[in-house]
Amino acid sequence: MTTVEEPLPFNLDLDVPRVIPGRGRNEWRRAGCARGSCGRIAAAIRRFGVRVLLLWSSTVTCAPAVGGAGIGTGSPPTVETHIQPWPGVARAAVSITFDDAYPSHAEVAAPMLEDHGFRGTFYLIVDKLFQRGKYRRSPSASIETWQAAARRGHEMGSHTMTHEPLDELTYDQARTELHDSREALENLFVGMDVVSLAYPFSRTDALVRDVTAGIYTSGRLGPPPEGAVPHNDPLQLDLLKLESMFLCTGDSPAYWNEAVERAVQEQGWLIETLHAMDEDGFCRISAVDFAAHLAHLSSLADQIWVAPVSDVVRRLEHWRNQTIEAMPRSDWRVDLVWQGPPPAASDWQITVHIAPVDDWRIVDEDGRQLPVRRRHGAMHFTWPARQDRVILETDRESTGVESGSWGRMKQCTQAAAARRYGSCEASACW
Ligand SMILES: [Zn+2]
Q: Which residues have a Cβ under 8 Å from the Cβ of 206 and sit 6 or more positions away?
């Protein structure tokens, strides 16, 4: 029996409603194991050596399958399917964001990003764009320069009208800052939905987030307090409390690069925040250092997805709503059925846990075998575009399942459909 090759997820207690603001839904889909089931799962892992990877999946199908570890043991193994959040084979997302509308952002940084095929998110202070109020003498790039950058694919987000700390304002004042800045920016950047907010001074509270949720799809903070490392876990993050890493004076590109590598290891979403670059201002860095960092990001092109904040949010919202159901067809075939409209593009990576992994293959409905990578005891493949099912199959003679197993499987797939992973009895599940 194989042993657990990777550490268990650090937090199995995933049954927490999460809020997606602004899109008419008020709850993240529940994923992972229900409260109280974790002990049973952990016990099952110890007992049968079945690997469980809950953290990065939007689907956990708790379904005993056939063959493999079940042969001669009377204990059918499981098949688990996981949809990975990031497109292609990317293992992490990186967003490069800019606060406070410094001139260098539109004039220097945006073209630098483009040299690598990247696009950034620029959080703009509306009063600074128009050089009014307390920003009468603060330089920014010309409106036309910002508009040109937007036309080249960069995202323009809001950093409010006046950059006042929102948690010190009344409800109406905060709402005006958030609403009017979105409206002003959408008038400047015609055709763009301004859906991303960065809180001035990283300050927010429940009331501010409540207002934000009605206007934006995300709210970005700075680094977490006390030197903690920013961490946005796709399964657990709160879109209104996105954490970011400030690229600042005194840091070296090596330090920033390490954060990217950590995000890859954690399969998370790293948001970077820049301020002044080769100009007076907060957290000033040099364009030379930034160029070195961009070159490093480019070198990780096969591991990271660099995208504006709103693109990542959209992807996560989509991912949260995808599920795959495992449906038995015979002792040696299990249909994996995409629930809902099948994906339009081949950019969803699927991980299948089934043992023994080498005995199984995946074919499409026409019987064509799909390319599969086997790593760490799991199968990884790309879901074919516009297909609503693929078939997990093995050679008939290699199965040795007992006839009663299908009844148990049915019970478990129903449990999975109800998002109650682990609610089926441990004896049936495992
Ligand atoms: Zn700011």
A: none
